[in-house]
């Protein structure tokens, strides 16, 4: 027993002699990647898929130990194409992960003079005020609306499905676009850098089956867009006039004029530094308590 402990201790000392400072960085990076992967899986429907995969791996190990040749052969053939199958099954989650990496601040800072940064901030404040005023009007008249605030993820493919407007924002223009007899009222409006950039755009619908059956196409399109980008999507229900926001795949409802303005400012307004760099705020938005009825 003493010799066994001595051998383990000597092996540990030998390992420590070979340990380099760069190995610490290697371990930290790998640990962070594993943590990020687990966090990504837990936040999506991939959690159930991973559980199923783990069950199959356990079944393969047991079949190997118990010499269950038929089961082992079937699982061996399955795992031969496992990587391709994982890429197909987890395609939405992998895309979301890569987009999330692309939203980091590395290489995304836009250098400009302080005056330009302040001008952009004022433009976005003006846009938020116009959207809030229009949404409050839509809430009273029960006019349906779908407005997308573009952030880091560019929505060029979504813009291509609609019509370029590139107009200075105002409650009147937004009201005209979503007037129920206007040609662009059924689609989504895209806000880019505080400007009404496009309208009549088609958004991808969410595949989340856990959403309330009371949510219509506009709400499902808003959630779908928020799942595929970091955009902030505002929805006004045509049936009830309820104002909702979709961010990162989560929809919160029952906003008032005041709470809507606060939430949009918190999510969209950049933090303009003294040198004029634009740094978007990625703070978590405050959830608004859902009422039991739409």
Automatic annotation (TrEMBL):
<dbReference type="InterPro" id="IPR045585">
    <property type="entry name" value="CdaA_N"/>
</dbReference>
<keyword id="KW-0547">Nucleotide-binding</keyword>
<dbReference type="GO" id="GO:0106408">
    <property type="term" value="F:diadenylate cyclase activity"/>
</dbReference>
<keyword id="KW-1003">Cell membrane</keyword>
<dbReference type="InterPro" id="IPR036888">
    <property type="entry name" value="DNA_integrity_DisA_N_sf"/>
</dbReference>
<keyword id="KW-0812">Transmembrane</keyword>
<dbReference type="GO" id="GO:0006171">
    <property type="term" value="P:cAMP biosynthetic process"/>
</dbReference>
<dbReference type="InterPro" id="IPR050338">
    <property type="entry name" value="DisA"/>
</dbReference>
<keyword id="KW-0067">ATP-binding</keyword>
<comment type="function">
    <text>Catalyzes the condensation of 2 ATP molecules into cyclic di-AMP (c-di-AMP), a second messenger used to regulate differing processes in different bacteria.</text>
</comment>
<dbReference type="InterPro" id="IPR034701">
    <property type="entry name" value="CdaA"/>
</dbReference>
<dbReference type="InterPro" id="IPR003390">
    <property type="entry name" value="DNA_integrity_scan_DisA_N"/>
</dbReference>
<comment type="similarity">
    <text>Belongs to the adenylate cyclase family. DacA/CdaA subfamily.</text>
</comment>
<comment type="subunit">
    <text>Probably a homodimer.</text>
</comment>
<feature type="transmembrane region" description="Helical">
    <location>
        <begin position="19"/>
        <end position="37"/>
    </location>
</feature>
<protein>
    <recommendedName>
        <fullName>Diadenylate cyclase</fullName>
        <ecNumber>2.7.7.85</ecNumber>
    </recommendedName>
</protein>
<dbReference type="InterPro" id="IPR014046">
    <property type="entry name" value="C-di-AMP_synthase"/>
</dbReference>
<dbReference type="Pfam" id="PF02457">
    <property type="entry name" value="DAC"/>
</dbReference>
<dbReference type="GO" id="GO:0004016">
    <property type="term" value="F:adenylate cyclase activity"/>
</dbReference>
<feature type="domain" description="DAC">
    <location>
        <begin position="91"/>
        <end position="257"/>
    </location>
</feature>
<keyword id="KW-0472">Membrane</keyword>
<keyword id="KW-0548">Nucleotidyltransferase</keyword>
<keyword id="KW-0808">Transferase</keyword>
<dbReference type="Pfam" id="PF19293">
    <property type="entry name" value="CdaA_N"/>
</dbReference>
<feature type="transmembrane region" description="Helical">
    <location>
        <begin position="49"/>
        <end position="66"/>
    </location>
</feature>
<keyword id="KW-1133">Transmembrane helix</keyword>
<dbReference type="GO" id="GO:0005524">
    <property type="term" value="F:ATP binding"/>
</dbReference>
């Amino acid at each position: 027993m003493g010799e066994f402990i001595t051998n383990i201790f000597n092996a540990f000392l030998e390992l420590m002699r070979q340990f380099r400072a760069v190995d610490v960085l290697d371990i930290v990076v790998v640990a962070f990647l594993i943590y990020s992967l687990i966090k990504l899986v837990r936040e999506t429907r991939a959690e159930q898929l991973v559980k199923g995969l783990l069950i199959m791996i356990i079944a393969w190990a047991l079949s190997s130990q118990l010499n269950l040749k038929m089961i082992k052969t079937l699982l061996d053939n399955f795992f031969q194409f496992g990587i391709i199958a994982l890429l197909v099954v987890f395609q939405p989650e992998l895309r979301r992960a890569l987009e999330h990496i692309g939203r980091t601040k590395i290489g995304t800072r836009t250098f400009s003079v302080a005056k330009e940064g302040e001008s952009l901030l004022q433009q976005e404040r003006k846009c938020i005020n116009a959207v809030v005023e229009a949404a409050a009007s839509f809430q009273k008249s029960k006019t349906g609306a779908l407005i997308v605030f573009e952030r880091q993820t560019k929505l060029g493919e979504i813009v291509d499905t609609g019509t370029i407007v590139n107009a200075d924002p105002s409650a009147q223009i937004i009201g005209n676009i979503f007037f129920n007899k206007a040609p662009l009222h059924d689609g989504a409006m895209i806000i880019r850098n505080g400007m009404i950039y496009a309208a009549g755009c088609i958004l991808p619908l969410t595949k989340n089956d856990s959403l309330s059956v009371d949510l219509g196409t506009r709400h499902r399109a808003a959630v779908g867009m928020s799942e595929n980008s970091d955009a902030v999507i505002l929805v006004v229900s045509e049936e009830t006039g309820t104002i909702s926001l979709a961010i990162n795949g989560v929809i919160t409802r029952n906003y008032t004029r005041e709470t809507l303005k606060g939430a949009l400012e918190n999510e969209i307004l950049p933090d303009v530094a003294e040198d004029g760099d634009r740094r978007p705020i990625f703070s978590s938005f405050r959830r608004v308590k859902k009422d039991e009825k739409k």
